[in-house]
Amino acid sequence: MSSHVAVIDYGMGNLHSVAKALEHVGARHVEVTSDPEVIRAADRVVLPGVGAIRDCMSELRQLGLDQVVQQIAGEKPLLGVCVGMQMLLEHSEENGGVTGLGLFPGQVKFFGDELYEGEVRLKVPHMGWNQVQQTIDHPLWHRIEQNARFYFVHSYYGVPGKPTQLAGRCQYGVDVAAALAQDNVFATQFHPEKSHANGLQLLQNFLAWDGRW
Length: 213
Hints:
Elements: E1 5-8, H1 15-24, E2 30-33, H2 36-41, E3 44-47, H3 53-62, H4 65-72, E4 78-81, H5 83-86, E5 89-92, E6 98-99, E7 104-110, E8 116-117, E9 120-121, E10 126-134, E11 148-154, E12 156-160, E13 166-171, E14 175-182, E15 185-188, H6 196-208
Parallel strand pairs: 1-2, 1-3, 3-4, 4-15, 5-7
Antiparallel strand pairs: 5-6, 7-12, 8-9, 10-11, 10-13, 13-14, 14-15
């Protein structure tokens, strides 16, 4: 079980809900921090995010934490959540176009104003519970049933450049990347901290994960 988890604080994101959820599932020491040295020293790192990706990337870069994320992405288990996942991709259509961290090849696209499932017009943002189809066998899916439901809030969705990096998908008018995985990085479009038992199980799995699969 992880002894020290750093939740990256760059002024954007539901930081304390994530921290409380991690503590609830057994993390001994959770630190919400913007200190690069504390983040580098942690056993595991969470990159949360809510709001506009332009503001998230701007704050991350201003604090120099973009470089920290890119460094630790090759060293220890890293979990991206919501906009935290989108920032790991190369580019987003949001805010007129925003360059991401590029840890995953791919784009973040707008659902559009005319989104339909059959003849039913869907609301944007995609807000609420949706089933997630697990597309790979990954330690973070341990003890989570196939097509389990998770909680989403987003108007933009990730399209990975490499199909092999897709860890989970859901349907909302289009195919949505619900989770991405590569080496010791796992990222979710949904909010584990708001997803009740399934989300807590995923966070517990993250605490037990050594970054290999």
